[in-house]
Design a protein that fits this description.
CATH class: Mainly Beta
Number of strands: 10
Distance between the termini: 8 Å
CATH architecture: Sandwich
Helix content: under 10%
Order of helices and strands: EEEEEEEEEE
CATH topology: Immunoglobulin-like
Largest sheet: 6 strands, antiparallel
Number of domains: 1
Structural class: mainly beta
Number of helices: 0
Amino acid sequence: MLQSCGTTKYNFSTSSVVPAAEGSVKVKKDNNNNYSINLDIKRLADPQRLSPAKKMYVVWMETEQNGRKNIGQLKTSSGLLSSTLTSSLQTVSTFEPTGFFITAEDDANIQYPGGQKVLSTGSL
């Protein structure tokens, strides 16, 4: 965990499912007591290459007050001068996060994680 200018950065642990993937999530509490969440991942394999194959990655946030919530689907792209896949998600929550994890899923609108957990920050 790194902290600067009111922003706290948490790193995702190395994954046995996608070992090349690495990333972090930055959380900042704003003046309205909301939490700005910026997640960036590099080298996360296409979910269709997993076994079993899935359609997308979904990001989950754990909170003490509101349980586990789906906060969105990762958007993936490769750079203009690089073939490295990068994935990101930006969102805001009214609840303080206690952890983040990413699962491989077939549906972005699910209410509970059903797929394989591929990355996790553990408890914050």
